[in-house]
Design a protein that fits this description.
Strands 3-10-11-9-8-4-7-6 form an 8-stranded mixed β-sheet, with helices on both faces. A 7-stranded mixed β-sheet has the order 17-14-18-19-21-20-26, with helices on both faces. A 5-stranded mixed β-sheet has the order 23-25-24-27-28, with helices on both faces. The two termini are about 65 Å apart. Helix 22 packs across helix 24. The chain has 35 helices and 28 strands. The protein has about 1050 residues and is α/β, with parallel strands linked by helices. Bound molecules: thiamine diphosphate and magnesium ion. The site of thiamine diphosphate has 15 residues, from helix 15.
Amino acid sequence: MLNLRTCAAKLRPLTASQTVKTISQHRPAAPRTFQQIRCYSAPVAAEPFLSGTSSNYVEEMYYAWLENPKSVHKSWDIFFRNANAGAAPGTAYQSPPPLSTSLSTLSQAQFLVQAQPNVDKLVEDHLAVQSLIRAYQVRGHHIAKLDPLGISCVNFDDAPVTVSPNVDLAVFKERLRVLTVGGFYGLDESDLDKVFHLPTTTFIGGNESALPLREIIRRLEMAYCQHIGVEFMFINDLEQCQWIRQKFETPGIMQFTNEEKRTLLARLVRSTRFEEFLHRKWSSEKRFGLEGCEVLIPALKTIIDKSSEKGVDYVIMGMPHRGRLNVLANVIRKELEQIFCQFDSKLEAADEGSGDVKYHLGMYHRRINRVTDRNITLSLVANPSHLEAADPVVQGKTKAEQFYSGDTEGKKVMSILLHGDAAFAGQGIVYETFHLSDLPSYTTHGTVHVVVNNQIGFTTDPRMARSSPYPTDVARVVNAPIFHVNADDPEAVVYVCNVAAEWRSTFHKDVVVDLVCYRRNGHNEMDEPMFTQPLMYKQIRKQKPVLQKYAELLISQGVVNQPEYEEEIAKYDKICEEAHARSKDEKILHIKHWLDSPWPGFFTLDGQPRSMTCPSTGLNEEDLTHIGQVASSVPVEDFTIHGGLSRILKTRGEMVKNRTVDWALAEYMAFGSLLKEGIHIRLSGQDVERGTFSHRHHVLHDQNVDKRTCIPMNHLWPNQAPYTVCNSSLSEYGVLGFELGFAMASPNALVLWEAQFGDFHNTAQCIIDQFICPGQAKWVRQNGIVLLLPHGMEGMGPEHSSARPERFLQMCNDDPDVFPKLDDFDVRQLYECNWIVVNCSTPANFFHVLRRQILLPFRKPLIIFTPKSLLRHPEARSSFDDMLPGTHFLRVIPDDGPAAQNPDRVKRVLFCTGKVYYDLTRERKARQMEADVAITRVEQLSPFPFDLLQREAQKYPAAELVWCQEEHKNQGYYDYVKPRLRTTINRAKPVWYAGREPAAAPATGNKKTHLTELQRLLDTAFNLDAFKDLA
Ligand SMILES: Cc1ncc(C[n+]2csc(CCOP(=O)(O)OP(=O)(O)O)c2C)c(N)n1
Ligand SMILES: [Mg+2]
């Protein structure tokens, strides 16, 4: 899509000024003649008819021709074409066809041409002026007065220049030096009062098409070099560039009515006085105040107002610590007493879990937008300390809300992301998130990014924190316009925010507002900034607060008077005081009040599950057969699939006839059946459509028609829920965060993220550690996301073997030493865990665990270690019988062979999980030890099936208990399982280990070593004397 757009932009015919632009970029500095226009070869002056003087006429012809070659006489058309193609002097001109009527016109033209001798200079000057205009458009932001402190965050070697309406030569020269990198384009002071035609690529003229150079410069200065720096000329879409130029160049476009100014002042009062109130009441509490960027509140409100006016009714926001309480209070309108009571250290927590600090909590609020009088829902997503980690989560949630409300173009639901300058430049997740912005299955149709650019990150200066001039340069990769603005000019800020919101609603693309501000205090209120930024902070101490500055301005303009201003302040202070008094009545702290994504109807009014049971996850035979048939067919006409795929589908069809499923078919059955029940399914990750291991094939590709695809899963039932399967960008952090956010929006969807290989999940570790594992404990927010992590030791080397089960298991919240006192392990234990970790050994169990995820009356993240070699293992098949009504997920699969029939005789029980089971059964058979050794599969690792494993252990009274795994001893499941298994037997017996030695790497890269290691662990598992000496 992007390519198409870029290509279209490139192919669009150039306008006159663009052509001139292109030409001027290539021209040598001097001497400058008309020659350059002719592709730098022959001097046009050498044309016989140009020896005259009517340069104006020629020039007009030339511009008209550039705009539209047909608009000029054929003879001019031929001349300019030849000249541009580099024809030698005297050869570009060709006589027009002899037309008797045109004779007089021609002689008139020749007269005019001869009327002015100065054609070279005039054309050159016009080109120079156009280059100058372009230079302002491209580089004007370098010299805009963006920094309220005047210490300039961008070192462009620029001397600040003040511009009066009468541009003087010094200013002019200085500008030219900076803007044109030394070249003056040949213009000098004598040109300042000359009138120049304006190209179509500027709007500074308003209704005028020509202006004196002095006025051109003044207007460009006003547009590009005041308190707004517009960075946009890298955008390769001409319409978008024109749109931005029009927004900033049109004379008088930044006017504000008195009413608007008063609203802005009132918003600044709230923002400023909120921080002052907190400071007065809790001077020693960390709150990461907004002082120095109070304008953030009117900025956000402007974006929301404008977006609401354009039809948006749901805004999802993500933001870091700085100013978060202020945003909650004054943008989202969280009740002030709820905020204030968070400062009371004596309040008891009402909810289970850890809770979180006040400046991380989320919020959801529906209200009327007072400016537009329309309903608006605002949600601020809870986030961890990890800066920028919430970005993809916000995007995923936004996408989901758009999806569920049928908002396919992002006209109703949008996201706003706030950033700190240091984090925006430094965190790679920002880049990953930007790269989702235009992908069909991930776009949220434009995000407004707002950077609180206080020119510092904790104690680090920008020059030590980034290699780019601006903190926002990362946005250039997606062609997002960047509006830098001096945060001490509230009107400039509000103007820019209006434009940003309009941009988003017009082009549905990302846009960045860079609020160049300062941080009045230390990083937090307890921090001393003078240790590290002494000069900066001396300057900050002298800085008048923006509210005071703006109030003085409006008072001087007569927009408000002093008493009115004071009254506004008193009014808000009173609101704060009253809320503070009320907050003292709060006895209990409810994190529930800070939920960012409520699921109405899913829970009872108290927020409890509607039941504590889970129905059978089995499915009737008819549905199994139907899904199987669709999975093995091409449900559209005239669609040619690849021959190899035909064979795969045929095999599937045969399996269905035989009432069996393999892994891929089991997944199909689970998805297909849930779709029938109205559950939306979204499977996302790298190459998931086909499947990394070429087993899935959920998207069929017509072999004869480019990009024609078919998703049979969407052809299952008449009124089924939609199935989304999407290959993602090559990102884990960004995409997993996105899917987590998607899963937040609704409990009635199965959202799955698949890693290409399980070990790649660690580049998304922050999403796992900060959101998935503790999300409910911190934010009372449930999430049913499923992680599919291909895992298994198959000799593929250190990097494609382990999904690191040990890491997930180490973060489970079940107590290894306590046998849970529960009546019902099946559901209750799941309710109390922080996440579910499984490693299924049969397709049927995989089918059940996916269905259980939705049929449970609550949501928990589900981590599944999925197989690779088992995908095609002839024994890794399940019968329909194991999936019929009444069947369910098996947390443990006990041995059902000779050992189980004579348990008293069994000498050893091997407990294992996942694919090693198949190695063990093969080996046991080979050694004819089926009566001696029982093999018990632990399918659900966490929460640990204490009840079932206790039963298993007790069933074999004379047996040794051995945990067998193919992973190295310090990895896999051993450390997690051993203490829990011992708890089931009251620590009456040891639990031995059969498996690989401890190691640093997850697996060997040498195939032979791999096989030797495997054989060794099987030897240990079946050597009944292996642990004799250790006992
Ligand atoms: C991923 C991550 N790394 C480090 C930190 C520690 N940290 C907290 S605030 C901060 C500085 C942030 O600077 P900036 O993004 O400019 O925001 P500001 O505080 O200036 O508003 C740092 C390094 C963090 N919170 N998250
Ligand atoms: Mg900062």
